[in-house]
Amino acid sequence: MIDFVGEKDLSQLTPDQVLEIYRSSNQNLMSAESYPSQASEATVVGCQVNDKIRLFVHYFLYDDNVGLLYQEDEPISPNSYGAQRDFAVESVESLGFLMENFQFGQMTEQEKRESMAKLPVFGGHGRHVAELDSTTRMEDPETILILDDEPDPHDVAMPSLGRLEGIQLDQDSWKVLFRFIASF
């Protein structure tokens, strides 16, 4: 059972203690505890501290700039971790969040530290929506949309979408755009 811990984050964790991170690819409107409904993101974190495996669910509420942390009430055995994690991810998805594996284990130590510094679950500031102009590029994975003045001929052209007609985006950019639109 997952219990509410409080208005906290996991900033005390080090990269070597984090087993996995699942993060919502969308922002969802939700209310939790005593907070009003607002744009939020969700993160599920599995970690191992002092030989104990723990599972946390964190909701970051943007308007109030607060994180709400929930924790599995007992340490999890290695044999049941996968099932418990899947249940937590599915529970968060049932609230309308689109959860994706953050691929934390495949990152270098430097990438892990930089990612943790950005994520609200570890005390970071969360997503930002880039000011969209003709030069916005997806150099930073937190940027939501890419627009190019000069389309790359190798990019995938999509059918006309009203005001987006004529904009060339690569396949990953289209996925990000459609996830963004689906979050409304």
The assigned structural class equals alpha+beta
State mean pLDDT (0 to 100 scale). Answer: 78
User: Can you give the helix content as a percent range?
Assistant: 10-25%
What is the radius of gyration?
A: 18 Å
Listing every helix as H and every strand as E from the N terminus to the C terminus, the arrangement reads EEEEEEHEHH
Can you tell me the overall shape?
Answer: globular
Structure annotation, total helices: 3
Q: Biggest sheet, open or closed, and with what strands and sense?
A: 7 strands, antiparallel
Q: Would you report the number of β strands?
A: 7
Alpha-carbon distance between the termini? 30 Å
Give the uncertain stretches in residue-range form: 128-165
The proportion of strand residues reads: 25-35%
